[in-house]
Specification:
By secondary structure, this protein is mainly beta. It has one domain: Jelly Rolls, CATH 2.60.120. 2% of the residues lie in helices and 52% in strands. It has an eight-stranded antiparallel β-sheet. The radius of gyration is 16 Å and the shape is globular.
Length: 230
C-alpha cells in the first residue's frame, strides 16, 4: 500500500524549499523531485544544490505526516501504538554517500529543541550500503548514537523498514534486506513522552556541495503510518 492521503511534501524547488499541501499532493502532483507511478511506487529526487528549509543544512524531497484535511499531525507516544513501515530502494547517493530515508521528529515548540528522535540513514561505502539508525537518547542531546542495523544493501536493492514506538515508550527499529535483517529495541527516556512527535519519509541528502546532477534518488513501493489506540 502506498497511501499519501496523510502526508504533505517538501521539495527543493525555486530559491527556497517548497511545501506541497496534502490536497495538492493527492490531486496529481508530479515534478522532477517527486514522481508517482500510480499506486505502485513514488520516486524522490533531491540534488545537493537544491534549496533548503530555513532550519536545515541540506536539501530534501521528503514527506511529513498530516491529517487527511492537511493539518499537521503531531502526537505523544503515550496516546497510541505508533508505526511507520516502508519498502524502498536507493538508486543514487551524493558524494558524501548518506541519505536519510525515515525519521521520527519532534515538533518545534516552547521547550523543544526541534530535534529528531531518530533518523534512519542509508550510508553507501565501497560498493554497498549500510542501514543505520541515528538515535538521540534525550531531547536536546548534541551527541547522537549511531547504530548499524544491516550491511551490504546494494543500490537498486529493495528493502524494508519499520519504526515503532509503543504507548509505553518502547522503541523498535527493524530492517529487512534479502535474507539479512537487523533490529534494535530501547526503552525511551520519559522526556520524549513530553515531546510531540511525527513521522517523515523520503530522500534527505546529507550533502550540500556539488553540481545539479549530484544528489539522491529513492523509490518507495510501500509506505504506511499507523497510530493504533488501545
Amino acid at each position: 500500500m502506498l497511501d499519501l492521503t496523510t502526508w504533505n511534501l517538501t521539495v527543493p524547488a525555486t530559491s527556497s524549499a517548497t511545501l506541497i499541501s496534502t490536497e495538492r499532493l493527492n490531486h496529481g502532483y508530479s515534478s522532477q523531485f517527486f514522481r508517482p507511478a500510480g499506486k505502485r511506487s513514488v520516486s524522490f529526487w533531491v540534488p545537493v544544490s537544491g534549496s533548503r528549509t530555513a532550519s536545515a543544512r541540506y536539501p530534501r524531497s521528503e514527506l511529513r505526516e498530516t491529517w487527511r484535511n492537511g493539518e499537521l499531525r503531531n502526537w505523544y507516544y503515550g496516546e497510541a501504538d505508533n508505526t511507520l513501515s516502508a519498502v524502498l530502494s536507493v538508486q543514487q547517493v551524493p558524494s558524501k554517500n548518506k541519505i536519510v530515508i525515515g525519521q521520527i521528529h519532534s515538533k518545534d515548540e516552547p521547550g523543544s529543541s526541534n530535534d529528531p528522535l531518530l533518523k534512519l540513514q542509508y550510508h553507501y561505502h565501497n560498493g554497498s550500503g549500510r542501514i543505520e539508525a541515528l538515535l538521540r537518547k534525550h531531547p536536546g542531546d548534541k551527541n547522537v548514537q549511531n547504530i548499524a542495523l544491516v550491511n551490504d544493501v546494494t543500490l537498486d536493492e529493495r528493502f524494508s523498514y519499520s519504526l515503532r514506538i509503543t504507548a509505553s515508550g518502547r522503541l523498535g527499529i527493524t530492517v529487512l534486506s534479502g535474507e539479512d535483517d537487523g533490529s534494535y529495541y530501547r526503552q525511551l527516556s520519559s522526556a520524549w513522552g513530553r515531546q510531540q512527535l511525527y513521522f517523515k519519509a523520503g530522500a534527505y541528502v546529507q550533502d550540500n556541495y556539488g553540481g545539479a546532477s549530484e544528489g539522491g534518488r529513492v523509490t518507495f513501493y510501500h509506505l504506511n503510518s499507523v497510530h493504533a489506540v488501545k
